[in-house]
């Protein structure tokens, strides 16, 4: 390239960057001035060396990362972080200027804006006009389906250099007249993308890597790109899928890769849209590229969809389960969830679900317990005795269950009150403090039914002291050093009889309070201040 | 005829933000002394009292006492349309069923008028007696907000106990317990960052954190918050509003009908100790059992 010409371009870049505040990327430069992308990069490099002082530069770093040498990485890095990121790359990484601009845009998408506008412009040209995008003239990656016309008449190429910035933007508003035509496709599919040499100008603005990550990223990017494309060529059959993709990928957004990917959607016509565009207008394209591209998409979408629906499903399941399943296994954390998420206000639904779910649970539990505790049997018997002796509101002790928790749980489906469940949770919370509590029979849980101030029947499970069981307690204490912990927390209940279910019941009460604004333990301000 | 001109319009915006979640509808009372509001939350557990004294306004005209019932959410919507630097003027005519908010940009090049419909609200105005509080804690408002937020992720209620040592916020939930102690700290350069505890006698009360968190929405109004506690009175959480008034939140305590439970809660150290000597502790426990 002649020096004079170069100088002219450099001056133009200067104007564009500092006066029009445009982001000048090598891609834009290449198309705008009809120079090859490599030349464009060189120009930018030169420009940065000469005038780069007051400007921000974004570099393309490509190479193999030190920590994952089998993955080819391409990163866009601002000048400030260049050295830092460079460290992460191995020795042989290539550094090229990606773009120059007055300042780093806060939205990375702005980097692609100019390119996008330009590409749109190019696509809007009548399909008979050959331009640099249609013949893939400047792309470093060749495409066997597109005949290059590198020597082509530059006059017919693209917008004129003078037509930059605002002019282009304005005309781009009329986009839509032509669906993307014969599109040169630098990277028609994932497979192709995989071995880009950094030396070749990478037309793709997407972050490309050849590892398994690609599988994730690439489809996402493609999917994202699908959206703008569908705006134009709405007849493309793959649209629906792409829209889906678009949705899912944006849902999964947040990673930097996604950000870049999303941003690159602005430059859509430059590559990925070709995927569909070629289908429409260029039936010559061999089917397999198409198919594989589609497959990639399908895989992505189905993957994503699967994930989504699975997630949703499981969410539903979980919430349903949490409400009703009282899994008194050793897994305390889960139980906490169960407890905290249990809704006290579903008395109608609960019992039904309870019984089914719990029987399931029971089976498991029982089996475990049978294997587990021989000691338990002894306790059972004792307990049964005590419960039999008091027929009033004692919990029915199921002889098959080894621990108290199980007992209460079994009884819960029978008693329909959701309050019981709450109570059970509360009690259970207490018991969880240690195994000792499970096996310690020194206190019994008692069902107490009362009518609350709102006229509802409230059945609570409360602790009741059982001195007879003291022997066992001692035994347990000796065997299980943690004994005092549960007893400490149980002390309240034992003494105050209803204390624990009160404190713990607060949670439940509170939930109700949210709905009704009432809480039995909550004082009323009106009892302190009198109306005037 | 009512006309109140508030140069620092952002104050009113912040006030609304802090109140609207607690109270949906309220009567604003305008008198010669100032612009005030008193309202209870729907469950009658908390009460908010706001006073903006007339001296705080650049221009204050209130021909006769006026009570304007407003939906605070709607009012907040309108005030959100005012810029933070805007001058807000509240205007109402006698007998009119609307109130007008006028927002003037500081440069006077933009003036916006928002007229809002008033509503009839049966107000239950409560007489709040002046009281001596057992303990008064002043602390940085952001600190208080942080404590309430943190504790609410663990439990539903907070026990605030003031002793000679300092003020302790403790909670207890399914996942465990939390205790935060703030000691008196007057050595800070900035007075608003100091923690001052005035205590006549120790006091310990339990409150619903949900309300406390709601009160802390007023944090932007003031750098420090004053918490006044008395064992037989609702707690008062007060935020001063830039030399022109205050916003006070009253919250009825949770009633402790069981002291023992609270004791167990308030004494975690024995538990810890117990871990080390489980046997002895357990035996002691067992022995003490029959007494229960």
From TrEMBL, chain A:
Low complexity: bias regions: 467-480
Gene Ontology biological process: DNA strand elongation involved in DNA replication; DNA synthesis involved in UV-damage excision repair; nucleotide-excision repair, DNA gap filling
Compositional bias per record (Polar residues), positions renumbered to this chain: 159-174
Annotated Basic and acidic residues bias: 224-245, 307-316, 449-459
InterPro entries: POLD3, POLD3_sf
Subcellular location per the Swiss-Prot or TrEMBL entry: Nucleus
Disordered as annotated region, ranges: 149-200, 221-257, 295-316, 332-356, 427-532
Pfam families to which the protein is assigned, alphabetical: CDC27
GO CC terms in record: delta DNA polymerase complex
Keywords, alphabetical: DNA replication, Nucleus
GO molecular function annotation: DNA-directed DNA polymerase activity
Protein's name according to its UniProt entry: DNA polymerase delta subunit 3
TrEMBL record, chain B:
Keywords per UniProt: DNA replication, DNA-binding, Nucleus
Domain Proliferating cell nuclear antigen PCNA N-terminal per the UniProt entry, residue ranges: 1-125
Biased composition (Basic and acidic residues): 270-292
PROSITE patterns: PCNA_1, PCNA_2
One Pfam assignment: PCNA_N
Coiled-coil intervals, chain numbering: none
GO molecular function, one term: DNA polymerase processivity factor activity
Residue stretches making up the Proliferating cell nuclear antigen PCNA C-terminal domain: 127-254
Region Disordered, residue ranges: 259-292
Presence of keyword Nucleus: yes
GO biological process entries: leading strand elongation; mismatch repair; regulation of DNA replication; translesion synthesis
Any GO CC annotation of this UniProt entry: PCNA complex
Highest taxon in the source lineage: Eukaryota
Location relative to the cell: Nucleus
Similarity section: Belongs to the PCNA family.
Role of this protein: This protein is an auxiliary protein of DNA polymerase delta and is involved in the control of eukaryotic DNA replication by increasing the polymerase's processivity during elongation of the leading strand.
HAMAP family linked to this entry: DNApol_clamp_arch
Official protein name in the record: DNA sliding clamp PCNA
Species, as recorded: Cinnamomum micranthum f. kanehirae
């Amino acid at each position: 390239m002649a020096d004079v010409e170069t100088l002219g371009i450099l001056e133009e870049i200067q104007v564009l960057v500092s006066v029009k505040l445009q982001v000048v990327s090598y891609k834009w430069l290449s198309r705008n001035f009809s120079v090859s992308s490599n030349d464009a990069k060189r120009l930018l490099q030169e420009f940065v060396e000469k005038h780069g002082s007051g400007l921000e530069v974004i570099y393309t770093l490509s190479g193999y990362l030190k920590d994952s040498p089998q993955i080819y990485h391409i990163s866009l890095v601002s000048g400030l972080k260049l050295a830092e990121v460079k460290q992460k790359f191995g020795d042989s990484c290539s550094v090229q200027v990606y773009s120059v601009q007055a300042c780093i845009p806060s939205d990375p998408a702005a980097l692609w804006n100019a390119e996008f506008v330009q590409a749109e412009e190019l696509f809007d040209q009548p399909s008979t006009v050959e331009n640099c995008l249609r013949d893939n003239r400047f792309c470093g990656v060749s495409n066997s389906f597109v005949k290059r016309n590198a020597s082509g008449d530059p006059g017919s190429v693209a917008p004129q250099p003078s037509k930059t910035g605002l002019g282009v933007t304005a005309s781009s508003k009329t986009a839509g007249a032509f669906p993307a035509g014969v599109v040169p496709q630098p990277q028609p599919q994932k497979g192709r993308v995989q071995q880009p040499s950094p030396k070749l100008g990478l037309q793709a603005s997407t972050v490309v890597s050849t590892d398994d990550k690609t599988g994730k990223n690439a489809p996402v990017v493609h999917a994202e790109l699908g959206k703008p494309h569908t705006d134009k060529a709405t007849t493309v059959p793959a649209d629906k899928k792409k829209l889906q993709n678009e949705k899912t990928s944006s849902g999964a957004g947040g990673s930097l890769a996604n950000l870049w990917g999303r941003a690159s959607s602005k430059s859509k016509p430059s590559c990925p849209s070709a995927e569909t565009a070629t289908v429409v207008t260029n039936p010559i394209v061999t089917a397999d590229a198409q198919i594989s591209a589609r497959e990639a998409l399908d895989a992505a979408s189905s993957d994503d969809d699967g994930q989504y629906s699975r997630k949703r499903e499981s969410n539903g399941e979980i919430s349903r389960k949490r409400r009703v399943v009282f899994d008194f296994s050793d897994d305390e954390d889960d139980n906490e969830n169960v407890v905290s998420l249990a809704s006290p206000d579903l008395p109608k639904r609960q019992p039904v679900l309870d019984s089914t779910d719990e029987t399931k649970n029971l089976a498991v539990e029982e089996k475990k317990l049978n294997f587990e505790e021989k000691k338990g049997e002894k306790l059972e018997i004792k307990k049964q005795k005590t419960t039999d002796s008091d027929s009033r509101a004692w919990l029915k002790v199921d002889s098959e269950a080894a621990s108290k928790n199980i007992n209460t749980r079994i009884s819960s489906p029978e008693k329909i009150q959701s309050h019981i469940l709450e109570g059970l949770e509360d009690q259970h919370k207490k018991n969880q403090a240690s195994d000792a509590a499970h096996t310690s029979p020194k206190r019994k849980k008692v069902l107490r039914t009362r009518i609350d101030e709102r006229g509802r029947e409230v059945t609570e499970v409360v602790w009741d002291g059982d001195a007879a069981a003291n022997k066992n307690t001692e035994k347990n204490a000796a065997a299980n050093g943690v004994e005092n912990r549960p007893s400490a927390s149980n002390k309240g209940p034992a003494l105050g009889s209803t204390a624990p279910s009160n404190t713990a019941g607060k949670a439940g009460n509170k939930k109700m309070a949210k709905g009704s604004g009432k809480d039995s333990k909550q004082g009323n301000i009106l009892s302190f201040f009198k109306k005037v | 005829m009512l006309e109140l001109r508030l140069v620092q319009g952002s104050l009113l915006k912040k006030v609304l933000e802090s109140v609207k979640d607690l109270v949906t509808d309220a009567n604003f009372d305008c008198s010669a002394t100032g612009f005030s509001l008193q309202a209870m939350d729907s469950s009658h557990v908390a009460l908010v009292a706001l006073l903006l004294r007339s001296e705080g306004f650049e221009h204050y005209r209130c021909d006769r006492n006026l009570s304007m019932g407003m939906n605070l959410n709607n009012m907040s919507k309108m005030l959100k349309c005012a810029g933070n630097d805007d001058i807000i003027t509240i205007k109402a005519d006698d007998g009119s069923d609307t109130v007008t908010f006028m927002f003037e940009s500081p440069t006077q090049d933009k003036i916006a008028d928002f007229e809002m419909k008033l509503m009839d609200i049966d107000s239950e105005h409560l007489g709040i007696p002046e009281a001596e509080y057992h303990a008064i804690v002043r602390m940085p408002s952001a600190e208080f907000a942080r404590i309430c937020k943190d504790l609410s992720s663990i439990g539903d209620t907070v026990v605030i106990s003031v002793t000679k040592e300092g003020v302790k916020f403790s909670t207890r939930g399914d996942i465990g317990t939390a205790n935060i102690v703030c000691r008196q700290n007057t050595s800070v350069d900035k007075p608003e960052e100091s923690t001052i505890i005035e205590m006549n006698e120790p006091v310990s009360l339990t409150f619903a954190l949900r309300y406390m968190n709601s009160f802390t929405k007023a944090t932007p109004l003031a750098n420090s918050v004053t918490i006044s506690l008395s064992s037989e009175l609702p707690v008062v959480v007060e935020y001063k509003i830039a030399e022109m008034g205050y916003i006070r939140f009253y919250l009825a305590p949770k009633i402790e009908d069981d002291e023992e439970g609270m004791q167990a809660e308030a004494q975690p150290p024995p538990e810890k100790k117990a871990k080390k000597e489980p046997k002895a502790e357990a035996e002691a426990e067992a022995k003490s059992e029959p007494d229960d």
